């Protein structure tokens, strides 16, 4: 009887979903959950046929030599580090002379000190410099081209800044250097410690929804994507909608970022600091049909099933294009073992024009997260996460036969399928 080992210490929500999902589909397997988790990968037993576990506990050397199945790729930083992801998409499009505008236009920069910025703006970031210079002629902030700065390896929204002027960009890096002397600021991102950043075009026409009281709010979609071997890419159709904690307002140089960032950790922190109730921020996206929608400069309408269908198709395209680009252009930094599979959390943004028509819906891929924080889904959506694990285990452990891109089976849509890495 084949044996599976399941262990996510410190993440009881994930442990329960993975264990329940495995028990539902691995009926002829012996499933073991250790009563005392190992301290590290060296202490993990190596005699199992499949490992569904925390990345740090996977015995990759034994897995590689014995061909056991495992729930993570050993190397996949090309997916999860923003600067690698931006570079892969750019290279993929340039080499093939095709459009890869499934993500906001991005510029990767390597900077340690603020005084290095002038040289970067003159060389690698001249497009950004020209746009910021042109902004000086705009009569209002609404007319400006806005950009967003993201640290390449930070998470939970830390270090993100908006800017529309050269002066503000310079100030941001000077502030980061100043923060380095303040050890008490847990959210500070120090330019002297993080060299890699990404500048992206800010999506200025986001689709806005009003899922509850609090007005029209910005949101992003959290899609769970299972990759198998080398390479099949599957979208779990039930996406989550994660909302900003306050109503959306157009960006300003001195404005509050809370209306622009839809990370749940930021909303909880703001509510705690201000002593205010936390607005509901996580919803199953398909439950939001008939919710009021709008966009900057648009009137109000209702979210219809036609909108939902258009957005899902856009998500399939954005995810398929992105994962293919990284697989083909960054094989050193994403090594696709044929016996590996992994669930990624993919963050997507939806934009539209003032018509709010389904045809105007456009889906952008923002980032890819390894070992996503499933517990943000909450108890209400635990069944959804369990189904994610069930289907991932069917695809990655039971090796369910794949199907063509664009088709859906049992709540999962294939976004990409090609034998980029051939089985021995």
TrEMBL record:
<dbReference type="InterPro" id="IPR004344">
    <property type="entry name" value="TTL/TTLL_fam"/>
</dbReference>
<dbReference type="InterPro" id="IPR027746">
    <property type="entry name" value="TTL"/>
</dbReference>
<keyword id="KW-0436">Ligase</keyword>
<dbReference type="Pfam" id="PF03133">
    <property type="entry name" value="TTL"/>
</dbReference>
<dbReference type="GO" id="GO:0000932">
    <property type="term" value="C:P-body"/>
</dbReference>
<protein>
    <submittedName>
        <fullName>Tubulin--tyrosine ligase pby1</fullName>
    </submittedName>
</protein>
<dbReference type="GO" id="GO:0016874">
    <property type="term" value="F:ligase activity"/>
</dbReference>
């Amino acid at each position: 009887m084949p044996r599976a080992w399941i262990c996510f210490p410190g993440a009881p929500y994930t442990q329960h979903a993975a264990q329940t999902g495995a028990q539902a589909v691995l009926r002829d397997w012996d499933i073991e959950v250790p009563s005392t988790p190992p301290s590290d990968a060296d202490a993990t037993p190596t005699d199992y046929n499949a490992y569904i576990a925390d990345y740090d506990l996977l015995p990759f050397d034994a897995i590689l030599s014995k061909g056991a199945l495992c729930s993570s790729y050993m190397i996949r930083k090309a997916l999860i580090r923003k600067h690698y992801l931006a570079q892969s998409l750019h290279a993929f499009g340039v080499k093939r002379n095709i459009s890869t505008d499934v993500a906001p236009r991005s510029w990767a920069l390597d900077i340690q000190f603020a005084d290095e910025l002038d040289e970067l703006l003159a060389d690698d970031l001249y497009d950004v410099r020209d746009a910021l210079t042109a902004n000086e002629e705009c009569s209002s902030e609404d007319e400006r081209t806005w950009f967003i700065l993201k640290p390449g390896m930070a998470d939970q929204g830390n270090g993100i800044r908006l800017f529309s002027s050269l002066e503000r960009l310079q100030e941001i890096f000077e502030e980061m250097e100043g923060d380095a002397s303040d050890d008490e600021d847990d959210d500070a991102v120090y330019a002297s410690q993080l060299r890699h950043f990404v500048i992206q075009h800010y999506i200025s026409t986001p689709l806005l929804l009003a899922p509850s009281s609090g007005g029209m709010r910005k949101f992003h979609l959290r899609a769970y994507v299972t990759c198998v071997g080398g390479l099949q890419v599957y979208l779990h159709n039930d996406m989550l909608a994660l909302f900003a904690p306050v109503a959306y307002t157009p960006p300003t140089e001195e404005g509050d970022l809370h209306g622009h960032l839809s990370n749940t950790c930021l909303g909880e922190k703001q509510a705690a600091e201000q002593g205010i109730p936390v607005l509901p921020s996580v919803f199953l996206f398909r439950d939001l049909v008939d919710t009021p929608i709008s966009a900057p400069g648009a009137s109000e309408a209702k979210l219809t099933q036609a909108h939902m269908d258009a957005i899902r198709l856009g998500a399939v395209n954005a995810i398929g294009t992105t994962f293919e680009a990284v697989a083909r252009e960054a094989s050193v930094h994403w090594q696709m073992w044929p016996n590996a599979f992994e669930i990624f959390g993919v963050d997507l943004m939806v934009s539209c024009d003032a018509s709010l028509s389904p045809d105007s819906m456009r889906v952008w891929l923002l980032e890819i997260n390894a070992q996503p924080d499933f517990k943000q889904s909450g108890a209400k959506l635990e069944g959804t996460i369990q189904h994610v694990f069930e289907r991932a285990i069917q695809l990655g452990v039971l090796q369910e036969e794949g199907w063509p891109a664009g088709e859906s089976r049992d709540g999962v849509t294939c976004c990409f399928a090609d034998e980029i890495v051939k089985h021995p």
